[in-house]
Amino acid sequence: MSLFGWLGEPAVLPWVALAFGLCVGSFVNVVIHRLPKMMDREWRAQCAELAGREPNVEPRYNLAVPRSACPSCGHRIGALENVPVFSWIWLRGKCSACGAAIGARYPIVELACGVIAAYAASRHGFTLAALGTLFFCCSLIALAWIDFDTQLLPDDLTLPLLWAGLALNLGGTFAPLGSAVMGAIAGYLALWLIYWMFKLVTGKEGMGYGDFKLLAAIGAWLGWQMLPLVILMSSIVGAVVGIALIAFDRDRRGKPIPFGPYLAAAGVIALLWGPEISRRWLPVVA
Description:
- The structure is a single chain.
- The protein is mainly α.
- It has helices at about 5, 15-50, 85-90, 105-125, 130-150, 155-170, 175-200, 210-220, 225-250, 260-280, 280-285.
- Helix 5 (about 130-150) packs antiparallel against helix 6 (about 155-170), helix 7 (about 175-200) runs antiparallel to helix 8 and helix 8 (about 210-220) packs parallel to helix 10 (about 260-280).
- The radius of gyration is 21 Å and the shape is globular.
């Protein structure tokens, strides 16, 4: 049996996908940590250029360079300290050099990506749909954490996600192409209209343009038929979490709450279980 034939065995593929997904999750953590800093560097360089000044010369910094290091002491993370999930457990959530705490976010993101990869492989097999599911969900995980930290939804992630959804749906991988195109258009316009209605009534901006692009990307993957479910789920979860934050954390009162994480969570749920949820629950609600 060939290597690819062995990997495609139903009893083997989910475990291989789990290991692959854990490694992808490690890279997603790098994106979450570094992409906002890369954007900040780019903005500062653009501001210097517009002001007629030479931008500061800074060391090379991207998703690959430099090597990962402890933010507290600068200790370079070795290979054995960089094994997804297991290294965090082995190190007891602390840097091996200085003992500074390593956030639980890292193993959570890695484990989430691994479980999604295993689920996608068991559901779709060794197919483009399985890889697409992993790419979609991992992109949304990265966008959710970045938005939570910075209240930014980078075009560097949302726009490739949108085009990737349309490209995959050329063959109807997740939705017919016409539905995907309408989903992208409707997703953007839906939140754009809500944004302007809210601004006209209150004089304030209720959300950012990144939210429009994110919902457009989700629509490009799932088709316009899934958008009502995505908007409903994200609004309900966002309202519940927002009320809880205001009730239990007085420091959060008056501060904007990012909507991107709730859109992202709803998008993942809709891709994985959307048709089943629509069949079982939407008729009850209606």
